[in-house]
Amino acid sequence: MDMFAQILSSGIAVGMIYAVIAFGFQLTFATSGTLNFGQGEALMLGALVGLTCVDTFGMNYWVMIPVVCLFGMIQGSFVELIGVRPAIKIKSEFGWIMSTIALGIIFKNVAENVWGRDALPFPSPLPMEPMNFLGANILPMEILVVFGALAMMLLVEFFNRKTIYGKAVVATANDRDAAGLMGINTSMVITFSYALSSLTAAFAGVLIAPLTLTGATMGGALGLKAFAVAIIGGLSSGMGIIVGGLILGIVETATGFYISTGYKDVPGLILLLLVLAYKPSGLFGKSAIKKV
Amino acid sequence: MLSIKNLEAGYGKVKVLHGINIDVPKGQVITLIGSNGAGKTTTMRAITGMIKPTGGEVTLSGEKIDGYDSHKIARLGLAHSPEGRRVFTTMSVNDNLLLGAFPRFTGSRPKGDIKEDLEKSLEMFPRLKERRNQLAGTLSGGEQQMLAMARAVMLNPDIILLDEPSMGLAPILVEEVFKIISNLKSQGVTMLLVEQFAAAALNVADYGYVLENGKIATHGPAAKLKDDPAVKAAYLGGASSH
Amino acid sequence: MMKLKSLLPLLIAIVGLFCLPLFIHNPYYIHLAETILIYTILLFGLDIVVGYIGQVSLGHAALFGIGSYTAGVLYFHFGWTIWGTIPASIIVTAFFGGILALPALKVIGPYLAMVTLAFGTIAQILINEMTWLTEGPLGIKIPKPELMGVPMTKAEYFWLVSAILIISMVIVDRFVKSQIGRAFEALRDSPIACDCMGVSVYRFKVIAFVISAGFAGLAGCLYAYSEQYISPNTYNNELAVLFLLGIIMGGRKSRLGAVIGAAIIVLLPKLLDDIYLFRIVASIIAIVVVAGAAMALSKQLTTPRRVAIPLAGVVGLAAFSFWLNSISDWRLSIFGFMILLVVYYLQNGIVGFTKSFYQSMVGKAKTTRGEDAEVVDDSISFISAVGKQNTGAELLKVDSLLMQFGGLKALNNVDLSVKRGTIHGLIGPNGSGKSTMMNVLTGIYVPTAGSVLYAGESVVGKTSSDIALSGIARTFQNVQLFGEMTAIQNILVGLHHTFKSNMIEIALHLPRYKKEEAEAHARALALLKFVGLDDLANEEARNLPYGKQRLLEIARALALDPELLLLDEPAAGLTAPDIKELLRIIRKIRDSGITFILIEHHMDVVMSVCDTVSVLDFGQKIAEGKPAEVQANEKVIHAYLGT
């Protein structure tokens, strides 16, 4: 029972991180029909920039968070401007897939050169002694991760539902042409959704950094698994990605424990392949009707 | 108010409009009728920036707007209730209406009292008032049409373009829709109405243009056009005008 | 039939290739050349997915690895020789290609890319973890293969690889030029039209991945013997991206492009290791691009705005190289940067760019009939006359059809009976359900309720591809031609059902395949002549004028040898003379016994050519009868005009 509780609690923490990153995928996909294949690298840059703020500039963790979020917004806007906007203009799906991949590679390489290839420890703002709850050892940082992720998603939901600008974003996602007719500058909405998407990824980066090692390679696997969560949950369902994230986090932790850490990443990927094979719109998503 | 000269437009290689001229004076209701494929919706889209015209000019209150993006045109006071309604299905009726007033929130249009206008809108469209918190996607076709029109009114526009408001609606609902259009007309709202239902359109309009194969076949005061056999021919063939 | 003139450069290259080890004795350079050849074989395979079915695959490094490890494992655990491991690698990797295709069946674009990425990641993890099979991170050492008991020399192995490359090149070339290649391109250009022409999208997606993987496996096997040591971390996502860069930069759908791409991805890292050499090369490229841009600007072929970015890019790169002391750390950024440049400015690769550059300098050659134009064999009856028997008998019977989408009843209890040999019109206002009916009849939608009987058999639940092959062909409201393929190739896809030859017959150009290809070609030309497009046979479909595109779609549908032809607004957007031609063609087709269902808004077309007309409104049939009767019917007038 202890083991079960442990797997559950660690799995939930990991799962919420996946969900937050997946949330970023949803944001850009909803408004523009495109995804950032370098989303994992956005997280990685956020974590590293955060590390520099805290280590080199001596910033307090909590003060660092808005700085990293701002960085994320700039990075996201950059990706949209350079990689996505030109592709949307020439209506080339191949174009934005390859450019966001390319930008991801460039960011990773830049990070390697600036911060080195080693994995670095990230100072934790909360005590590192685990608390015992129902038989499981839970780190305070893990609790922060869960609450931070939920808070971020709730904040964005609040923005979408209560502010007129948020409604404009939802409208653009719903029907881009009609949104333009309302006087909404839909290109700017798309840039904004990329900025927001990288913001959430960067934020996720500084949340998870104290729990793991920070380095140029941390983004790759996370990005792919977050994509799996976005697909499993359904790219159009917010609730779906939280459920998807939790499922993946728990299954992964269980695999790592019962089989071996090397195989940890495999079940998530297999789950992704199964969902794409049988219900591509996701467990919670709605299938689109073909129009000919 | 709105003046269209020699407008040419199409989709990729297909040229649909071959130079049309339409004039919408302030305070009047002008209608553009014609059968399917004649180019009515293409005309609307070319005016409101959904597609870019390949030739000709569109002038709104003296400003040349051909080639502008849709959002810029909306901010200049031109509201468009598009073909197929295109309401925001995942948002409530209330939110849809608020979005119609978007440029007023951001300052591109004079702000006025948005809340008050929202309540006034709902008074004019009682069916919507009952359903104000419902998701727009769950409304019936007729209700969505009302919503699209109310949304256009929320802009406090100088001119409203209505694209095929009767499409897909049962006859009873079509009557209601046209009653509302009459209502708006009596309030002095300038409108350009595109319709497949020639009869209803000509009943409410001041002046009409008949579009056939991308060209204006005939035009005149609405009352006169009603009895013109050329109108019937444009829809159902018969008088071979080729 | 290739002329000797165009074969000559190729023959010279092949001879040069084989002479290489005779003149260059440094094993380092031979190994480099060998790696280029091996990567070329892989890129042939990757091109099938990227160039021909038009998708991004990030899984080919993994397939490459599976090929290497099949060879490695069979040697290490069972002592197999290369003569066994080569076929084994091909077969095993092809099998995994098939597995990769399964989750990829229903998805395209970014989803498919992610499927391949997931596959690649899983494969690498499994190779790394299953140490009992693969030795994991330790890797496997493989000795040079033996020829008659003696290990091969570097030169001998090079010749083996070269020979295999030539064979692969010929086989790939033959596949992509055959009906298989056309099926791939049709899949890419319009999956819906592809299915409706009887070419199953699912089936050919799997075939594409299987063939592609086969080549990757072959390359992987040869690589293992070339490197003589394999380990899991070689076959990572970076390599996968590098392969993509190679094929895009070299040029898709081109064997030469694969060679150039392979050379780039092998030589580039070496170039980046030597900063002095890199500075020289970067400066030369910058100078060439600046000169080329200046030339193009002076000839007014482009605008300053368009060349600004690539110019800034190459000049910046050269400057950057002088600023740094070592560029190998920035290798990946350079790759990323190159991908960006290539994706936006070099979409057709070096091969494509050179071709269009050459054409714009020299002037476009005429694509209309020249001395090479083929003569149409007028004796071919290209429309298999269905025969006049049974005219008037019921061919299609639709009973109480209900098509519901959520709450919307697009078709509500519709009955339809279409008699053989007639032209049955289907009219009604926008949104009345006409196109929905078409889509139900061709299997794109499955009806919610009701029955559809075609020649006595139910159509409900059958795939679009099966329905097409059973005799129902269609055109589309928004033209769904295979845009990047030529007019004659579009028709040849419609003729896919006449090809019975298999892959071996294609690869070896056996008589049955050659006969089928020749007959299909002649028939396609005859069909083109019928619709007046024979002089545009080699023009890309997307470049044709709109009116001709619609006629091409009809000719393509005829290639299916249908009994029932569904035309969806064939006259939309046509000018009066085009409409006259369309009517003439419709009548001629009807005279050979084919039945029509015609959706139209052009009343003149409907009146002049239809025998019966059914009118839909709000998904229900409101009138039916002879055209003149329907035209005068009050309900119909009300539905359209509202009076």
Which features does this protein show?
A: 292 residues, mainly alpha, 11 helices, B: alpha/beta, 4-stranded antiparallel β-sheet, 26% strand, globular, disordered C terminus
Summary, kept brief:
The complex is a heterotrimer of chains A (292), B (242) and C (643). Chain A is mostly helical. Chain A has 11 helices and 2 strands.
What is the fold's blueprint, element by element?
The complex is a heterotrimer of chains A (292), B (242) and C (643).
Chain A: H1 2-32, H2 39-55, H3 61-89, H4 93-115, E1 131-133, E2 136-138, H5 140-162, H6 164-174, H7 176-181, H8 186-208, H9 218-233, H10 238-258, H11 266-278
Antiparallel strand pairs in A: 1-2
Helix pairs in contact in A: 1-5, 1-6, 1-8, 1-9, 1-10, 2-3, 2-4, 2-8, 2-9, 3-4, 3-8, 5-6, 5-8, 9-10, 9-11, 10-11
Chain B: E1 2-11, E2 14-24, E3 29-33, H1 40-47, E4 55-60, E5 63-64, H2 70-75, E6 78-81, H3 93-100, H4 102-106, H5 114-124, H6 126-130, H7 141-153, E7 159-163, H8 171-186, E8 190-195, H9 198-204, E9 207-212, E10 215-221, H10 222-226, H11 229-236
Parallel strand pairs in B: 3-8, 3-9, 6-7, 7-8
Antiparallel strand pairs in B: 1-2, 1-4, 4-5, 9-10
Chain C: H1 4-23, H2 27-52, H3 60-78, H4 82-104, H5 109-129, H6 131-134, E1 140-141, E2 146-147, E3 150-151, H7 154-177, H8 179-189, H9 191-196, H10 201-227, E4 229-230, H11 237-250, H12 255-273, H13 275-298, H14 304-323, H15 331-345, H16 349-362, E5 394-405, E6 408-419, E7 423-427, H17 434-441, E8 449-454, E9 457-458, H18 464-469, E10 472-474, H19 487-494, H20 503-507, H21 511-530, H22 546-558, E11 564-568, H23 576-591, E12 595-599, H24 603-609, E13 612-617, E14 620-625, H25 627-632, H26 634-641
Helix pairs in contact in C: 1-7, 2-7, 2-10, 2-11, 2-12, 3-4, 3-5, 3-10, 4-10, 8-10, 8-19, 11-12, 11-15, 11-16, 13-14, 19-21, 19-22
Assembly type of the chains comes to heterotrimer
In terms of per-residue confidence, which ranges of chain C show pLDDT below 50 for 5 or more consecutive residues? 366-373
* Tertiary shape of chain B: globular
What is the average of the pLDDT values of chain B?
87
Number of helical regions of chain B: 11
The profile of the biggest β sheet of chain C is:
6 strands, mixed
**Mind summarizing the main beta sheet of chain B?**
6 strands, mixed
Summarize the amount of helix of chain B as a percent range: 25-40%
